[in-house]
Write a structure and sequence with these properties.
Belongs to the PhyH family. By secondary structure, the chain is of the alpha+beta class. The chain has one domain: Sandwich (Jelly Rolls). 23% of the residues lie in helices and 20% in strands. Strands 1, 2, 3, 4, 7, 12, 14 and 16 form an eight-stranded antiparallel sheet that branches. The protein has a four-stranded antiparallel sheet with strand order 5-13-8-11, with no helix packed on it. A two-stranded antiparallel sheet has the order 6-15. About 10% of the residues have low confidence.
């Protein structure tokens, strides 16, 4: 990490900002069955052959009841404490929906739609270190694992402007590190998630393509900050709605095109997620690429919140977020 990134970490320390595939296991080793077909998964003793093939072909894998209710209840309680300002976490980013962003702040979870960068909250960061999560993550990243990006999403009931939607996008758009195949997201439902409250929507197989150009979609009701979407997205492409129960976890590739629909219920839809990467990944310069617009936006936001953090690069911002959760820290 550069001196600028270390300075940013110190500065944030003084701030207070606010369908599933279920298969039966076989004893045959996957590497023996398909010795030359795998690109997106690594040889392992955990994934069933059909699970591994499914991820290779579709770019996601849903695992039922992976996280226990007890852990989920603790995450929800910590989120409520953050919303009530009973706990203050350095560097935590608190977001509100565009329809309520300019309204008077109410210290309650109804005012918060998402929190990001909870790597310095011991209670929430337990999610990123859960052994049952990491054993799956290792199948995609290898043994040296960094937790790079953390979120708890509290999708609100839609206020009639359709702003609770999340445009179809690829997560790699936000990441200045590669290779993409050694990055994976773990996304866990904190309650029942279905089409009514805005479940994840994925385009199977799109992880085999390239990173597309992203920008804000032209939606009449407006778009939330940082919610970029694929520019040439075709709504007629075949989609899969990932309806999930509490504790279900989906793992997906950073090039997989995905998003979520409106929350048409009166309740809030909660999920927690972490993006992991192999610590053998390298940072890249995104200038002159389709990612330059997100780099500029992130740096602009950072300069407004931390004007003292002179010389911070896009790569620095990601470096100070990352936390080693398993194995050895190498490049990232």
């Amino acid at each position: 990490m550069s001196q600028a990134a270390e300075r940013l970490r110190l500065l944030t320390g003084h701030l207070d900002r606010a369908p599933a595939v279920v298969a039966t296991r076989t004893s045959a080793p996957t590497s023996a069955l398909h010795p030359h077909k795998f690109r997106y998964t690594l040889d392992n003793d955990l994934l069933k052959p059909e699970e591994r093939l499914f991820y290779e072909q579709n770019g996601f894998l849903l695992v039922k009841k992976l996280v226990a209710d007890e852990a989920i209840d603790l995450f929800r309680k910590e989120f409520e404490r953050i919303c009530k300002r009973e706990v203050r976490i350095p560097g935590l980013i608190v977001m509100r929906d565009i329809t309520i962003a300019k309204s008077e702040f109410v210290p309650d979870q109804k005012a918060i739609t998402k929190i990001q960068d909870f790597q310095d909250d011991p209670e929430l960061f337990r999610y990123c270190s859960l052994p049952q999560i990491l054993k799956y993550v290792e199948c995609f990243t290898g043994p040296n694992i960094m937790a790079m990006h953390t979120m708890l999403i509290n999708k609100p009931p839609d206020a009639g402007k359709k702003t609770s939607r999340h445009p179809m996008h690829q997560d790699l758009h936000y990441f200045p590190f590669r290779p993409a195949d050694r990055i994976v997201c773990a996304w866990t439902a904190l309650e029942r998630v279905n089409r009514q409250n805005g479940c994840l929507v994925v385009l199977p197989g799109t992880h085999t393509g390239t990173l597309k150009e992203h920008d804000y979609p032209e939606w009449e009701g407006g778009v939330n900050k940082m919610y970029h979407g694929v520019r040439d997205y075709d709504p007629q492409q075949p989609r899969v709605h990932l309806e999930m129960e509490k504790g279900d976890t989906v793992f997906f590739h950073p090039l997989l095109i995905h998003g979520s629909g409106m929350n048409k219920t009166q309740g809030f839809r909660k999920a927690i997620s972490c993006h992991y990467a192999s610590s053998d990944c390298n940072y890249i310069d995104v200038k002159g690429t389709t990612q330059e617009n997100i780099e500029n936006e992130v740096k602009e936001i950072a300069s407004k919140k931390l004007p003292e953090a002179v010389g911070i690069t896009f790569q620095d911002m990601w470096a100070f977020r990352g936390r080693l959760v398993k194995g050895e820290k190498r490049i990232l």
